[in-house]
Batch of 2 targets.
Target 1
Amino acid sequence: MTGSFEGKLALVTGASRGIGAAIAEALGAEGAHVVLTARTAADLEQVEEKIHQAGGSATIAPLDLTEPESISRLASAIGGRWEALDMLVLNAALLGTLGPVAQIDVKEFSKVLTLNLLAQQALIAAFDPMLRRSEAGRVLALTSSVAAAPRAYWGAYGASKAALETLVTAYGQEVGNVTPIRTAIVNPGATATQMRARAFPGEDPATLKQPDAVGQAVVELLKRDFESGARFDLTRSGSSSRAGP
C-alpha cells in the first residue's frame, strides 16, 4: 500500500473501537504502520485485521495505560523496533459517572484523571525522544466541547479534558520553535460511540456522525501543515450540537 503516510509510524491509544479504531484504520489506509493500544486484545485484533485486509500494516499492544510502568514498557518496545514516532494520537479516555460536583466520587475521579490526564503526560514524556527524531512529529489530543464550555454534571470529565488541552498546548509551545513537532487539539463533536451512548442513553445514534467520518477528518488534518497549539472543531460535520463526548 502507498499513501500520504507511507513509511510513517503512528501510535493510537484507545484504538479498540469507536473513534480510536476509525483513526487507526484511516491512518493504515494512508500507508502508516499503526501501533494500536487498548486494554482488550480481542478487540484490538479485530481492528488490526481490518487494517491488514485493507492492505495496511499494524501492530497491537494490549495494555492498561493506568497501570504503573505500562507506558514506559510500551515506549521501550516501540523504541527498540523503530527509530522515530511520526504521529501520536491521544484518544483513550474515561467518561466516569455524570453527576453534581459536590457528589463526585473521589476514587472514580482519580481514575478519570489518571487516564485522561496523567497517562497522557506520561505518553508525551515517554515518546518525546522518538517524536523529536521524526521529520514532522505530530501530537493530536482528542477533546470534548465540555472542556471549553463547562456543563452541569459534566464537571469531572470536563475538568480532565480542560487540563489535557492545557497540557498538550503547553507542550506544543515548548517544542514548537526548536523541533518539527506540532501539536493540535481536536474536538470530534457528537459521534456515535459507546461513550456517547452511555452519556445520552435516549439519543438516536442515527442522528450522529459515524466514527469513520472522524477518522477521515483526522487523517486529513494530519496531512496539513499547522502551527503548534492548533485547534480543530469537527462538530459541524455532525447533525447534533449538544455538548458531550
Target 2
Amino acid sequence: MFKRFLASMLLITLVATVAPSIDKASASGTTYYVNVNSGSLNMRNQPISGKIIAKLSKNQLVTVATQSNGWAKVSTNGKTGYVSSKYIAPKVPAAAQTPALKSTAKTADYKAKAISVAKSNLGVKYKWGGNTTSGFDCSGLVTYSYGKTGVNLPRTAAEMYSKAGTKVTSFQPGDLLFYATSGGKKVTHVAIYIGNGQMIHSATSKGVSIVSINNSYWKPKFIGAKRI
C-alpha cells in the first residue's frame, strides 16, 4: 500500500513539473477577445512600459501569438503589440456565446458586407443627392452600402453624426468617419473606414474611391468617428 502511495505521489510530481503554466500555455494563432468592463485596452510596442500604439475596444477580436509573465503578444487590424493577459479571454464557441458576443459577431458580418458593397461601386461618379449606382454623394454611398445589409441610417452626414452609432477614437473597419469640408465643426462629409488607415467615400473629384485617412486634404478636416 505504501509503495502504491509513493508511486502516485511521484506521478503527480512529474505531471506538475512538465505541465506548462496557464500563463505560457496558449497556442500560437489562438483567437481571443478583449475582456474589459469599460474603456479600452492599451496595446504597447513592448510589455509593461512600452509605448501605446493602439487602444482596443471591448470584445474586439485579437490573435494571440504568445503569452508570458502576464503579457500577451497579439495582432489585430494589421498591428502587432503587447497587452495585459488578464484583459483578454479565449473566444467563446458559437453555441455558448452570450448575446453580447453574438451581437459582436453579427456586427462584424454586416460591416464587412457594407464595405464590400461600397467597394463594388468603386469608380461610380459623384452626384449631389445621389444614392443609387448611377451616382452617389458621400452620405448616399454610406446609406446605400449599409442599407444593403439591412441597416438604415439617416440620410445626411450631419444627421448620421448627431443621431447614429457611438463615438469612438480607435477605428475598426465599418466605422463612419466624419469631416468638415467647409471649416469649423459643421459635419459635411462622411466616409467608411475599411482598415489599414484607409477609407472609402464618394468625393466630388473622383467619385467612389479609396483614400488614406492621413491624406493631407482630409486629415485636418476630421471631426470624429461613430461605430454603427
